[in-house]
């Protein structure tokens, strides 16, 4: 039998334990652990959720990896076409972990209405384009039909629709410069708005218009099998750098590739700062919870001084007595973790389902509500880490037990 654990259980179950002088302090310590864990869970969930959502939105407009022809073009516009007659298209089987690949083309233009005009970047897409992420972004209308003959259906962002005073069903004129000779009369297209989207990512929403890729092929005088670039989607974003190198190595020498981390380096550097902030929050919360537990344990030790004296007089070693109080402290920490997990996870699930907490300035974070996500492995490690670190901190106050003299302790009673 584990004697120390037996004594700790008797202390915890005893009626005097709940009515003793230390009872209020113990409740405060448990509350501190619970509140600390709630703060840590919320910080982790919001950070992970925000990172995932920003990654997803950037990938929706660019893919995780882009494959294009080598050129000196630094703009977002497709200038040098790429043939679709590639071994990796329409399925990239040579590299594992790739979920989808699609052909696109982009062209800069201007939308002109009777009242105003706006610069745009028309993104031509085909039947292979993955619209699944846009189901969350669509606020009006529907997606364009691309599986039939060439048509004039497009979707635009809510930002462009508001600036140009357009709505679903409206038609407008757009103008695109001709390749190789900007002095010539620009290409003109008459498009119809069939859908309006809002991704919350103003950098993209303010310029992107989605249309049939055949419009851009005709304006650029490309062949049917020529596109601007390929967008590659991978299964695990954490392997982006590795998969980017594998894709680059697998393609022919005339093609180049680039990951969205390379293209939007500043954005992903900013996202990386989230981890540092969360680490600081977790560190502070563990220290606060640990200090409260140290206070509670000191009060417990002082309250049980006679018991400590009796155990020492009976020959119990100091470490054995310290283990009794360490078991007791671990129990209190466990209670705090239980309530912290219960309340914290309910709050996270509530935010995930109902999205009741909004960003005061959606433009700064590219979305209106605060997204949340929780990783089971991270959640388990957090709980184990808090339990171990807080219990380890209890070794310091438990050292006072070695200074207690049996004679004085028994007289103290």
TrEMBL record:
- Which keywords does the record carry? Cell membrane, Membrane, Transmembrane, Transmembrane helix
InterPro entries membership: ABC3_permease_C, Lipoprotein-release_system, MacB_PCD
Q: Which domain of life is it from?
A: Bacteria
Compartments, as annotated in UniProt: Cell membrane
What this protein is called in its record is Transmembrane permease
Q: Which family does it belong to?
A: Belongs to the ABC-4 integral membrane protein family. LolC/E subfamily.
Quote the Pfam families the UniProt record gives: FtsX, MacB_PCD
Membrane-crossing segments per the record: 21-45, 278-303, 324-349, 379-401
Q: What membrane topology does this protein have?
A: Multi-pass membrane protein
Give the MacB-like periplasmic core domain ranges: 28-220
